Amino acid sequence: MTTCQQPEHLEQYQLWLSEGFHGEMGYLERHLPLKADPLTLLPEARSILVVALSYYLPEQISASLNPEFQIARYARGDDYHGFMKNMLESLATELKAEQPELIWRAFVDSGPLLERSLAQRAGLGWFGKNTCVINPSSGSFMLLGCLLTNLEIPPDKPFTTFHCGSCTRCLDACPTGALTAPHWLDARKCISYWTIEQRETIPESLRESFGDWMFGCDICQEVCPWNLKFAKISEQQAFYPREWMQNASLSDLLQLTAHEFELKIAPRSPLKRPKYRGFIRNLAIVAGNSGRPELLPALTAARLRHAEDTMLSEHLDWSIKRLETLAVQVNG
Known about the structure:
By secondary structure, the protein is mostly helical. The protein folds into two domains: 10-247, no CATH class; 248-332, no CATH class. Helix content is 42%, strand content 10%. The chain has helices spanning 10-18, 26-30, 32-35, 59-63, 80-98, 115-121, 169-173, 191-197, 204-207, 219-222, 225-230, 244-247, 250-254, 258-264, 275-289, 296-305, 310-331; strands at residues 47-54, 70-71, 104-107, 126-127, 133-134, 142-149, 179-181, 184-185, 213-215. A three-stranded antiparallel β-sheet has the order 1-6-3, with helices on both faces. A two-stranded parallel sheet has the order 2-9. It has a two-stranded antiparallel sheet with strand order 4-5. Helix 15 runs parallel beside helix 17 (310-331). The longest helix has 22 residues, at 310-331. It starts with 9 loop residues before the first helix and ends with a helix. The mean pLDDT is 95.
């Protein structure tokens, strides 16, 4: 629980925006005045309940997924925005039964709030060098939500200590150098930004560094000692991966039509965000990085199917050229 005062990290956030580190996510800049004052979202608000929900699953679950591609842990099941907000709304309904005067609004990445700053002020953890909130007993594989209320509730003690120490594993491990300094993420270099937020051409200079990440990236969290030691297993079945992530191959996925994507991949899934074209584009990059010339028939078929889409054609051509070059080298 915390107050509705201005977030402590607002000045740092303003500087981050001024440096252009948000890339083309213009809505972040437009929402700045709102993020400076939570009362713009609920003028009657007096307290903010900040919650964290773990999405980390047992490693044997991850081991069961198709190793040809990787998907960020949070995105393997249902879209958290919906069911996590429902959980907050259910909590608010229970509170209102006891406090009829309650006025509230719930947000899960859906409102202009600096959730990480509020989470630190509510005592949930510290702002890690990888820009995630890290909790000392459960790590950083967690999602944040906020419930603004008009109730006067005593705030929890802020988390004021910093426990990353001299560790720089997250910065060192980022394959694209997106973590330019402790606490500073340049979205313009971030795998998650390009594979999720951007729907057009991914710079060729970055593609090889994407490796097998088809949607999002967890590298800066996976190497964090706090996650290696304390990551908390989620109790939410909604985070468990879809069946196709275990059984579908890269070749299968490259052949999906837009209609099949909408039927089999998109429903209730975070993977719907980059839409069908972004999905195929991301698969093309993973295939090009695979080092597997046997994927050439699937890539060539996809190239014919998307011949009229300039963006997709360019990415598929890139992948085909990489694998054809490798095949020549191998066959010598």
